[in-house]
Design a protein that fits this description.
The structure is a single chain. 63% of the residues lie in helices and 9% in strands. The chain folds into two domains: 326 residues, ABC transporter type 1, transmembrane domain (ABC transporter transmembrane region fold, Up-down Bundle), CATH 1.20.1560; 206 residues, P-loop containing nucleotide triphosphate hydrolases (Rossmann fold), CATH 3.40.50. It contains 18 helices and ten strands. It is α/β, with parallel strands linked by helices and 612 residues long. A hairpin with a 2-residue loop joins β9 and β10.
């Protein structure tokens, strides 16, 4: 979709939607390109045949009244013998019926042919927007409600189907039909009929556009209220456990009720203004039809027209009125569809913060076990926050374990995101086997690095699917082996459906420790060069944690491991420990070396052992 504007950041990482300016023709050109890349089966013949059916239907619709008028004129006593009159009347009446049949059936044939294209285009728009949303920055997704984002994609994709049908198959053909009808009126009747029709349509169109433009603010309010209510409901459902545990059902329902109240008010405004528009349109069209009928009657009384010509005039006008009524509807809906598309266009206009460089390369095969990871003078500042990291440098040789510790807000999570290239440093660089991560393709980086987060997110799918998500091509034996390594074997054997057991929305049917073990199994199945453990055993009980730690010690062999730890007892065997405070490294060394220094790490150790 066409959109103008840019994305400006007050501070690095901030999400600011661009200003969107619509141009009708540019937007339709973008829509045309979307149709052409929709991949619809038979696109090259379906499109021209559908357009041809539209033209044939409109031509038949304009010609049919002329046939009926001629048929009525043959019934005049002065037209000839009864036999000749009957034959001519029957022939013309059959021609009228045939043309009416073609005019009525052409849209059905067109829809049958073109539905494949319109549905494929709608699906393409949804897939492209969905893919673009997934490519956007971490900050963007942390600031968006999931329900609202899903509604943006859904409404925007559906609007493309409506725009194709309305603009290509209604607005354009209606203009063609109007020109045809005016030509017939001038040639067959009188220029005054064409002038009356033209003036009526101009007044109708101008009034329709003016009132519809006035109604746009009401539609925007309705969409915003709809998005707010949808976002609140989905957000509450996804965080059901939090709502329940804090006894916030009433408060949550009250907020939802207020949002639905806003929706009702906006809906009433939108529908009331729509009724006003429909009433004004009806008055204009009725006046135009009355003028045409009176004019035709006067022409017959003065002998300049026959009775059949009156029928031609009335049928031509009512034939124009039918799509003209749809013109008003389609204009309203097209403008509303553009409003629906505004958010999708804004979304498509956002640029991902993390993209592959034009000369990005895949990581070469590693000649050693693990990978060489280095932070070289890395600085990263969050928006509206103090510095996340300041000139941080450390080196994790292949096959070693580096632990990152420090108080909350020290920058540990920022370091993890930099190592995964979810964000890029604003100064310095992060390297993997000597390659700056900004010069490495994201696909190969994701294959080389695996994360076990503190809060493991699971899909509403089976245990097998959640573990196998790391490697879709893994065999059942490999998935089972990863589960065994994560101490999940006995748990899975005790499930009613084993590996096929559903874990529920976000894995809520599992305990926190079970979810974390599934996350560990998923990371192990990926067989990465670099394993990142972000508080990976924080939700486990002491016995399970000991078993997992033993497993992690085994799986760390042969790969480089970065461990973010709050519980220092889990990293005493690390090859090096980096201590962060306020975004800077204040200490580094092994566990015993840091204890001997009696500094920051030793103070943290004493505090935790005393609490234990």
């Amino acid at each position: 979709m066409h959109a103008g504007g840019d994305r400006r950041f007050a501070t690095p990482g901030a999400v600011s939607p661009p200003t969107v300016t619509f141009s009708f023709w540019a937007s339709m050109a973008d829509l045309w390109r979307l149709v052409m890349r929709s991949g619809a089966k038979g696109l090259r013949w379906r499109l021209p045949v559908s357009l041809a059916m539209v033209f044939v239907g409109k031509l038949a619709g304009v010609t049919a009244p002329v046939m009926l008028g001629d048929a009525i004129n043959t019934l005049s006593p002065a037209a000839g013998s009864a036999v000749g009159i009957g034959a001519d009347f029957v022939a013309l009446a059959l021609a009228f019926a045939g043309l009416r049949l073609i005019s009525s059936c052409a849209p059905y044939v067109r829809d049958a042919i073109f539905t494949t294209v319109s549905q494929s285009t709608m699906a393409k728009a949804a897939v492209e927007t969905f893919a673009h949303a997934l490519a956007l920055s971490l900050d963007f997704h942390q600031s968006k409600q999931t329900g609202m984002l899903a509604r943006i994609i859904d409404r925007g994709a559906r609007s493309t189907d409506f725009l194709i049908r309305s603009v290509v198959f209604n607005l354009g053909p209606t203009a063609v039909e109007l020109v045809m009808a005016l030509v017939v009126m001038v040639l067959r009747l009188d220029w005054r009929f064409a002038a009356t029709t033209f003036v009526t349509i101009v007044i109708y169109t101008v009034v329709t556009f003016k009132i519809t433009d006035w109604r746009l603010s009401h539609r925007r309010e309705l969409n915003e209220a709809d998005s707010r209510s949808a976002g609140l409901s989905v957000d509450a459902m996804m965080n059901y456990e939090t709502v329940k545990t804090f006894g916030s059902e009433t408060r949550t329902v009250t907020k939802y009720d207020a949002a639905m109240g806003d929706y009702v008010v906006a809906s009433v405004k939108a529908n009331t203004s729509l009724s006003l528009l429909n009433g004004v349109q009806a008055v204009i069209l009725t006046i135009g039809l009355a003028l045409m009928t009176v004019l035709a009657g006067l022409e017959v009384m003065q002998g300049r027209m026959r009775i059949g010509d009156v029928t031609v005039a009335i049928l031509l006008l009512t034939g124009i009125y039918q799509p003209l009524n749809m013109l008003g509807f389609n204009y309203r809906e097209i403008r509303q569809a553009f409003i629906d598309m505004e958010q999708m266009v804004s979304l498509a206009a956002l640029k991902p913060d993390i993209v592959d460089a034009p000369d990005a390369q895949d990581l070469p095969p590693s000649a050693v076990h693990g990978a060489d990871v280095a932070f070289e003078g890395v600085t990263y500042q969050h928006d509206a926050r103090s510095t996340g990291l300041r000139e941080v440098s450390f080196h994790a040789p292949p096959g070693t374990t580096t632990a990152i510790v420090g108080p909350s807000g020290a920058g540990k999570t920022t370091a993890v995101r930099l190592a995964l290239r979810l964000i890029d440093p604003q100064a310095g660089r992060v390297t993997l086997d000597g390659m700056d991560l900004r010069q490495v393709s994201q696909a190969s980086l994701r294959r080389a690095v695996a994360l076990v987060p503190q809060d493991v997110a699971l899909f509403n799918d089976t245990v097998y699917a959640n573990i196998g998500f790391a490697r879709p091509d893994a065999t059942p034996e490999e998935v089972r082996k990863a589960a065994e390594d994560a101490e999940l074997g006995a748990f899975i054997d005790g499930l009613p459906n084993g590996m096929s057991t559903m874990v529920g929305e976000r894995g809520l049917k599992l305990s926190g420790g079970e979810r974390q073990r599934v996350g560990i199994a998923r990371a192990l199945l990926a067989n990465p060069r670099v394993l990142i453990l972000d508080e990976a055993t924080s939700a486990l009980d002491g016995r399970t944690e000991e078993a997992i730690q033993a497993t992690l010690r085994k799986v760390r062999a042969g790969r480089t491991t970065l461990v973010v730890a709050h519980r220092l007892s889990t990293i005493v065997d690390a090859d090096q420990i980096v201590v962060l405070r306020r975004g800077k490294i204040v200490e580094r060394g092994t566990h015993s070396e840091l204890l001997e220094k009696a500094g920051e790490y030793a103070a943290l150790w004493r505090r935790q052992t005393r609490e234990h």
